[in-house]
Design brief:
Strands 1, 3, 4, 5 and 12 form a 5-stranded mixed sheet that branches. The two termini are 20 Å apart. The protein is an alpha+beta fold and 177 residues long. It has a single domain, classed as ph1033 like fold. It is globular and about 50 Å long. A hairpin with a 2-residue loop joins strand 8 and strand 9. The longest helix is centred in the C-terminal third of the chain and has 13 residues. It has 6 helices and 12 strands.
Length: 177
């Protein structure tokens, strides 16, 4: 059964994507790496068929930016050898996502449109749950529907099935799939 994950994008990256006109474009690639600033999808256990939801923490709210179904997870240094020209052009197009030390690239069919105006409702934020081998945990630092610290969402984390379904519904209700 496919899993769903979140990955936190910085506000600097989001401002760059907004200013360069990426709003409304459908995600086709994501980049990962060995460092906390650009975490590894492979290390998180992401596999083809899984869904990745980029998120942002801004003004004490969690924002759902889009979704991408994983088609392939490739080594960045040799990705060009394994991609069709159309996919390689997409990789080049999404160059602003390539921040820091990149070691891997996720490619997939066009996903949900990138948007910066889809906040996660406070009631969903308060019950948003991640799942790991050690068990389940809710997002920490949620007070009165506000996210006071991004520390518990910084990285690539697997969502519990109920939370994955809720984020997917939030994207569908936004008319972005």
């Amino acid at each position: 059964m496919p899993a769903s994950y979140t990955t936190l994008w910085t506000n600097d990256l989001c401002r760059t994507l907004i200013s360069e006109g990426f709003t409304g474009e459908r995600l086709t690639v994501l980049f990962g790496g060995p460092h906390q600033s650009l975490p590894s999808f492979a290390r998180a256990g992401v596999r083809p068929g899984d869904v990745i939801h980029p998120i942002r923490v801004y003004r004490k709210r969690l924002w759902l930016l889009g979704a991408l179904e994983v088609g392939r997870l490739l080594d960045y240094d040799t990705a060009g050898e394994h991609l069709a020209m159309e996919d390689y052009v997409r990789l080049l197009h999404w160059r602003p996502l390539r921040t820091g030390c990149v070691s891997e690239v996720v490619v997939g069919p066009p996903g949900a449109a990138l948007t910066f105006d889809r906040p996660v409702p406070p009631d969903l934020l308060s019950r948003l749950t991640y799942r790991s081998r050690r068990g389940e945990r809710q997002v920490k630092h949620v007070v009165d529907g506000e996210l006071r610290s991004a520390v518990s969402v910084h990285g690539v984390y697997r969502l519990a099935p109920e939370s994955a379904g809720a984020l997917d519904a939030l994207i569908r209700d936004g008319g972005c799939l």
